[in-house]
Amino acid sequence: MLAAGLALPGAAPALAGSFEFAPAPHTDLNRVYRIDKATGEVGACQFQLKEGGVGQTICFPAGEGAGPQPPGEYGLMPSRHEKEGGIFRVNLRTGEASVCYVFDDKTVCTPQAK
After folding, report:
1. Pairing of strands 19-23, 31-36
2. Nearest 10 degrees: CA dihedral of 89, 90, 94, 95?
3. Which of 35, 44, 76, 84 has its CA 20 to 30 A from that of 17?
4. CB-based contact 18:38 (threshold 8 Å)
5. C-alpha distances out from residue 114 to 85, 89, 90, Å
């Protein structure tokens, strides 16, 4: 039955995304980070109240250091520090890590280090 559905004109197979999501460790911050597991690009989103409305999702695109990195296998690792707003970006192949956080409406990351 699946093969029949894929044979329909215009039908395309659904592909799983290569993203991982993790919350900031700060207990009073409603921010979620996302990473492209193949490229290491990091972004963040959070909820913000909107006057007279139900609120909105605000996203912070990749800024300095948070864009695509050398090919690898990347993940996110929150610290256990309750007041930390940033998150670690780790390269599972090389053991390198950097810290990513929101600064001036962009998600930024420190250089990768071992």
Report:
1. antiparallel
2. 120
3. 84
4. yes
5. 22, 12, 10
pLDDT at 7: 45
Give start and end residues of each alpha helix (H) in 7-112.
Answer: none
Quote the mean pLDDT of the chain.
86
H or E element that contains 4: helix 2-6
Look up tokens 């290569």; give the residue.
18
- Asked if the model's pLDDT at residue 56 lies above 70, the reply is yes
Residue partners of 88: CB distance under 8 A and separation at least 6 = 76, 77, 78, 79, 97, 98, 99, 100
Q: Where are the domains of the chain?
A: 16-109
Q: Alpha helices, DSSP H only, in 24-100?
A: none
Inter-residue contact 17 to 46 (CB < 8 Å): no
The single-letter code of the amino acid at 103 is F
| Share above pLDDT 90 across residues of the chain, in percent, rounded to a whole number | 65
33 close to 107: Cβ distance less than 8 angstroms: yes
